Amino acid sequence: MAHDAPQATGPSKLVIRNIGLLLSGALEKPILDGDTIVAENGKISAIGRFKDVNTEGATTVVDANGTTVAPGLIDSHVHPVAGDWTPRQNQTNWIDSYLHGGVTTMISAGEVHMPGRPRDVVGLKAMAIFAQRAFWTLRPGGVKVHAGAPVIECEMVEDDFKELAAAGVKLLGEVGLGGVKDGPTARKMVGWARKYGIQSTIHTGGPSIPGSGLIDKDVVLEADTDVVGHINGGHTALPDDQIRCICEGCKRGLELVHNGNERSALFTLRTAREMGDLHRVILGTDAPAGSGVQPLGILRMVSMLSSLGDLPAELAFCLATGNTARMRELDCGLIEVGRSADFVLMDKAQHSPGKNILESVQLGDLPGIGMTIIDGIVRTQRSRNTPPAGKVPEIIIGH
């Protein structure tokens, strides 16, 4: 199993130079003018031209060799269990494998695959607190896993949410995967969660696993969760008219997942763009699931939405980075001073017909990943999962 990745033991300074393209993760300005990033002690301290920033005293220097630097990708919807193992597929090292797909942060939508998952109130609270604590301590491959997302049950009262929040729980698992499947009960409990700073997500569409059920537009709109989980179904999507009704009827996050209906994902994307609400669209995989695990799932979503959804690639990457970071209140996902120094360095895949990485993605190809960095520390170099990149970065100083 992938174990806790090493952290910096002293003052650190990372310099990434010779950047060919700098993607910010922000829809309002997706491409930055700069060829150098400096990060000190895991946080971005400067962005700009090499001649204009202070690179003295670097403990690690990366020559990007003209490749693209983007914020580390964020998977807004995963179902972790214990460490880097999933009983759903009896697979180990799946989180570390996602790192090789450029994912540096994951958000749990509920630890629903835990064998013998308790459904009584005491048990579900204990499991959520355990998961939050465990993944706060464990960083498989360095990946940040925000876990501890209880699946709510009808017997819960307001004090249960207050207790969870006091213990450090900040997320709810998908509403609808437990006993709460009706709008009024969901809205009451989502309100309690919000009162104590816990963010909520709802299952949307047909049932996905035993115990889940249909959650239609009426329940989604009445529950008023912070994120409309897999609005394109996980796997079975709602009809188009219900998806449009959700998009128009609330101003919450619209989550598109790899393990969903691709046609419905494209419909949601078009609807959000027509409404001027592209900032509401975020991406996840909804894995591990019956479809397995998808180390390249977020990259595949970026490529699919760009190529089939006619979305410029630099904007598509924002859906997997800055949009999610802002909605989930994370300190990563955007390349700006003060944010976590989490990056993915990539280039167009070898032999892609695109002239550059953006054109290749908009043609439907996946980029090749040459390096991932989390908290200013190089975690991987050439990806074992993506196609080989045309150009790759290299470490000049450090290791």
TrEMBL record:
Pfam families: Amidohydro_1 (PF01979). InterPro entries: Amidohydro-rel, Metal-dep_hydrolase_composite, Metal_Hydrolase, Metallo-dep_Hydrolase. Residues 263-376 form the Amidohydrolase-related domain. GO terms for molecular function: hydrolase activity, acting on carbon-nitrogen (but not peptide) bonds. Transmembrane segments: none annotated. This is Enamidase. It comes from Bradyrhizobium valentinum. The lineage of its organism: Bacteria, Pseudomonadati, Pseudomonadota, Alphaproteobacteria, Hyphomicrobiales.
